[in-house]
Design a protein that fits this description.
This protein is an all-alpha fold. 83% of the residues lie in helices and 0% in strands. The protein has one domain. The protein has 2 helices and no strands. It is rod-shaped and about 50 Å long.
């Protein structure tokens, strides 16, 4: 929920001049997917270290 709010705020704040809405959405989606995969990798690594 918090992350979604942050993305919504960032989306409004970082709408670059001269960039179309769809281009911006594409960049933002890529960025959020990257963050999600990054955090899940960290979580998996932490679990493996914990159960070692």
């Amino acid at each position: 929920m918090y992350l979604t709010g942050q993305i919504a705020i960032t989306r409004h704040a970082a709408l670059l001049p001269g960039m179309s809405e769809t281009q911006h959405d594409k960049i933002l989606k890529t960025y959020s997917y990257f963050l999600l995969s990054f955090f899940s990798i960290i979580a998996v690594v932490q679990l493996q270290l914990f159960y070692d």
